[in-house]
Structures are given as structure tokens and as C-alpha cells.
Amino acid sequence: MTLIAGIDIGSRSIEAVVLDGDTVVFSKKMPTTFDPLQQCRELFKEINAPHVVATGYGRNLLAESGLHPDVQTVTEIQAYALGARAVHPEARTILDIGGQDTKAISLLANGKTAKFEMNDRCAAGTGKFLEFMATALQIPIEEFGDFALQATHCPTINSMCTVFAETEAVSLMARGESPANIALGLHQSIVNRTKSMLTRVGITPSLVFAGGVARNPCVVKNLEKELGIQIVIPDNPDMVGARGAAQWGRKHFNA
Amino acid sequence: MGKYDAMWEKLNIDLPAHEGLMEVLGKFYGDIYLSQQGRLQGMEYLDLVLSEIHGLRVKELQEAKQLQGRKVIGTFCVFVPEELTIAANAIQIGLCSGADAGKEQVEKLIPRNTCALIKSFMGFKLARLCPFTESCDLIVGETTCDGKKKAYETFGKIAPMYVMEVPQRKSEQDRALWKAEILRYKETLEKLTGNTITAQSLKKAIVIVNNKRKAIQRLNKLRVADPVPISGRDALLINQVGFYDDPERFTNQVNLLCDQLEEKIARGEGVAPQGTPRLLMSGCPMAVPNWKLPYVTESSGAVIVGEESCVGTRNIRDLVDESGQTLDEMIDALTDRYLKIDCACFTPNSERVDNILNLAKETRADGVLQYTLLFCQPYAQENFRVEKSLQDAEIPSMVIETDYGMEDVEQLKTRIEAFVEMVK
Ligand code: SF4
Ligand code: SF4
């Protein structure tokens, strides 16, 4: 079988998956840095696949770089749709909250994309928002979700704008609200925004939650509560895009 | 000194700023238009008009003014009846407003969250960048949206402004109002030009403008072939040029182009392979040089097969009945024709939805992109209804809200590419 590499070049991280038939034989995640092409160059020292399928905002960059003789591109929407179906064939709705964008995708029963939504220009409601707020509250980002789960009460944060939300958080702090409660409020605002995005595309189970933020237990728990359904979290939520890109290659090259 | 500098200087253009604008525009044009593969020969006419946009045509206007004493009327909207303008022996030109200009100055006079189109026409005037605006003896506005309505009050202080009241409904009273407005415009023209509009001159003008519409209608029929013989970008450009070139010359050129398209179709040649996903653009007008979305779309593996827009079918779909003999009959025909325009400013406006559905069918579109200028209330409101109707007809659609800035190009690319993958 031909090896096919899927590479997802996001704003924060690059993920790569190599498929041999249906088996993942390699997978790796690394930071994007300011020189994503250099990162890809390093990557190609480790993987030797005749076909590469790139996705993510850097997909065209890689395709045009000439670093590899055969680079095809697909959008994140298609990559996440295919990736989610690969790890969970029942998937009908996909949520991806990544470093700088959020997308909600609904699929037809046959796996074709029916509708999608993407956040526009700003980073409201994305991983970046959580990261920024965790830093403001001086909590390591990996622990931010657990920290918020210790809250006793959920204050309302109205602003989705990263800058204004911080102002709100600071004024809540000045009013004596505990950092854990504020953290919960911030998580809840992401949950609300995500819910409305999902509602716009329509929520049919199973809902697969991919992207880095899927690792945040507070977002997952509260989203499940809001939607009243169970959410499927893949083992490696960050790898879904790369997996989907490789999956597209499987179809495309009939490998 | 450039060959038109003296003319521009006389028009009080800010020369250094203007030169900068022309450079950007030229590069933009090169990237978006001249780089296309397999373009039609006849497009050279459009390339010439565009590359000389502020030169040749403005010179013609100046000569018409000086040597023939003709007046120049500027417009922003397809509601201004060109037939009357021509019948009064004046020249009507659409003022572009498709690029950001003079932002800082504009935002001192009107709110920042105003649509880019309004900001643009104000900006071009304030920054003294547009020789067309400066050539106008009268600029005709219309009350189609609150943004324009109020902006014209401010604009009127710096430009020779005249405003037509467009009704918002289509009942008998509204028709009476619109007819009165047409008559008032006729009188205004007669006073400005010193020419009386006669049944004879109006009849002739109606035919001239109808012929222009027919030429674009012909183009629209031809461009739906698969493979598509002409890119959506080029078709848009033709529509745009139609707003400021001489109407009879324009009609001839478009018909010549159509002859070539027919030959091309007969040879089975296209600008994109057969089966390329076909999209319809729908919504706000795209004035020169607002080519961002068509360019992104056609670089994402799709072709645009129609524009449901004022710079598009809304401007040319309906003809004026040519059977009228008396002046009054012709005024009635004009009134009726212009009231058929399905601008989002009307309430209710169900014709627009029907027209979109029909156009999607005629053009065999695989999907519709609803183009909305940021802060444009009327079209943003209609997006929901249009989307719902398209959904019921099983035609995928997506709303694109944007302005003239370039910051969102990457984002747009991803969304449109994904949409194209979806409709494939
Ligand atoms: S959209 Fe409405 S207001 Fe704008 S140009 Fe068209 S008819 Fe005029
Ligand atoms: S785009 Fe919308 S807001 Fe702007 S002038 Fe046209 S109708 Fe008015």
C-alpha cells in the first residue's frame, strides 16, 4: 500500500499523520513557530510518503513551497469532516475549536458536508481566548478547565471579545468574585457561543468534538449539559484534521 | 508630466494621491484580470477602458462639456432613469465607490459603522481622487437606505446633490409617488440642460438603454454554457463598465464580444473545464474595483455564472416598454419598469426571492453566495429569507459579509473553498 501523509498546518501547531491503508503508522504534533516551512522540512526527514495532503491555513504555503513533489490541499472543513468519520463513523456533527478558529460542521448520513459555520476575523470563542484568560488569571492552560470546575457559582461574562472579556474579568475580581468562579464564567461564555454556532448548522448525534479545546474538561462538561447530549471526544482530538487530510488522500489516490 | 495631468489638475484632483491610487488599481487589475488564461480578444476593449479609466473617458466627458455644452450626471443607484438623462442630451455615469479612500476624513462626517459603499463615495470626494465625481454637474442620489439618505445630506454640502425619493412599497400610492419623482427629475434635467425632453428624444433614449440591457442579457444567456465561455470576473467587469462608458459604444462592443462567445461555445472552449462548480453571486452591488470576492471565488475552483445584483441582473433584467407614443405613455412605461427593481429597500420584497430562484435555475448554479457589505441592513435582513428559500429548493448557499479591506482574504478563501468542495 502507498503511504499517505496528512499534514494540518494551523496557526498554533502542525499535526502530521501517516496512513498505511487504514492504519496510522505515524503521528506527530509540533509547534507552528514563525517558520512553518522549516518545521515541515524537519517533518519530511521523519516521514517518507509519496503523497502528501495538506490542510489548515498553511496548506497552500506548503503546496507552493516545492518541499515535496506531490502535495494536494483540502480545506479544514473537509479534513475535519473526513477525520471525524474516520475515528467515529457515526459522526453527523463536528465541532472543532482550535487555536484561532472554531468551526461547526453538519454532515448528511452519507458523510457529505451539509452545512458549516466558521468564526470570522477575531479570536472570540477560540482556544486563543481561553489561553489569554488563563494567562490573565495565572493558571497554566492545561489546568484551566479543572480549575474552573472547582467553581461554586457562574458569573455572567457578556463580552466575547478577548480584550473586553478581560476587562470584565478584572472588574469581577475587584468585586470579590473568586478566580475559579470567573474561570467558569469565561468557559461558559465559550460554551454559549459554541452552542449557537452548532444550532445554526443543526445538531444531529453523534457530535464529535475535535481540536485542542476538546481536552478541556470544563468546556466538554458544560457543553454536554447545555446540549443535553453526549459528546464524542476522539483519543487525539488535535489529530483529527491531519487524519482527515490523509483520509482524503486514501480516497483520491485509491490507495 | 503624464498626458492627463493638466486635465486632472483642472478638475482639482490631488495629483500625488491620485497617482498612488492608479498604481494600486493597475496592479490589482493585472493580478485579477490580465493573469487569466484563455481570455477573449474582445476583452481588450474593456482592458483599455479600465486602464484609461480616469483618462480617456474623462477626457471625452470634458470635451462633451466644453465643446457641446452637455451636462454630466453622476449616480449611485440603478433607480435613476438613464433614459431621461439621455433624452435631455446629458451624459449619465455611475460613480464607482468600490474601494476604500479618504477614510479618516470620512469618519469625521459619518459613522464608522456605515457600509463601505457610502464611505467610499464620500471618501473619493473628500480626498479629491475621482475625476468622474469632479466632472459632474449634478449627482443624483436616492432614498433607498437610511445610510445613503442621511449621507446625502452631508454629501450635499460638498457636491451638487439632488435626491430622488424611492418609495418603499409598490402599491398604487407608491407608484404615484414614483411617477411624480420621475417627472420632477425630468424637470430638473430640463432646467439644468436647457433642453426640453420630447416624445421623440425620449423614445430614442429608451431604445438606446434597452439595447444596452439586451446586449448584457445576451451575454448572460451565453455565459451559462458548460464549459463556461467567460469568467465571472470578466462578466462583472462588463457590467461595471456599462455604468460609465458611452452607452451605444458599449452596446456595440458587448455584442461583438457575444459573437466571439458564440464561436467559442461552438468550439466547446471554456475558461474552466466542463463540470467546474458553478456559483451565483447575489446581494449588494459590486462597484469598480470591488473584485475581491469574485477573484477569491474563481481562484477556489469555481466559476461564477451570474450576478443577482444591481451591478448585474437587477440592472438589466427588465426592459422599458417601447410601444408608448406620447410623452405621458413613456413616462408611465418608465415608472413601471423602474418599480420592478427588487432592491432590498422594498417591503415586502418577495419578488427578489423568486428572481434568485429563477436565476439559479437558468444558470444551473450549484450554489449561491450571498454577498453582503458589512453594515448593510436591507440585504443582511433579506439573507435569512433567501437562505431559507434556497434551502427549500435544495440549493446550497452561504452568506459572505465583508467590506473592501483585504484582511479577511485568507479566511474567505477557506470558507469559499470549503463551500466549493461541498457543492461539488
Ligand atoms: S441595491 Fe438598491 S440601493 Fe443599491 S444600487 Fe441597487 S437598487 Fe440602488
Ligand atoms: S450597500 Fe446597503 S447600506 Fe450600503 S448603500 Fe447599499 S443598501 Fe445602503
UniProtKB/TrEMBL annotation, chain A:
Q: Does the keyword Metal-binding apply?
A: yes
Which Pfam family, any one, appears in the UniProt record?
BcrAD_BadFG
Q: Does the keyword Transcription regulation apply?
A: no
Q: Domain (ATPase BadF/BadG/BcrA/BcrD type): give its ranges.
A: 6-249
What the entry lists under InterPro entries is as follows:
ATPase_BadF, ATPase_NBD, CoA_E_activase_dom, Dehydratase_Activator_Redct
Q: Write out the entry's keywords from A to Z.
A: Iron, Iron-sulfur, Metal-binding
Task: Return the SUPFAM superfamilies for the record.
Answer: Actin-like ATPase domain
For activity, the cofactor(s) needed are: [4Fe-4S] cluster
Any single GO molecular-function term of the entry would be: iron-sulfur cluster binding
The record's annotation in NCBIfam families points to: CoA_E_activ
> What name appears for this protein in its UniProt entry?
3-hydroxyacyl-ACP dehydratase
UniProtKB/TrEMBL annotation, chain B:
* Family indicated by similarity: Belongs to the FldB/FldC dehydratase alpha/beta subunit family.
Domain of life of the organism in this record? Answer: Bacteria
The secretion signal range is none
Per the record, the coiled-coil ranges are none
Q: Which Gene3D superfamilies match?
A: 1.20.1270.370, 3.40.50.11890, 3.40.50.11900
A Pfam family the protein falls into: HGD-D
Q: Which InterPro entries match?
A: FldB/FldC_alpha/beta, YjiM-like
Query: What PANTHER family does this protein map onto?
Result: 2-HYDROXYGLUTARYL-COA DEHYDRATASE, D-COMPONENT-RELATED (PTHR30548), DEHYDRATASE SUBUNIT MJ0007-RELATED (PTHR30548:SF1)
Q: Which organism is it from?
A: Desulfoplanes formicivorans
Q: What is the protein named?
A: 3-hydroxyacyl-ACP dehydratase
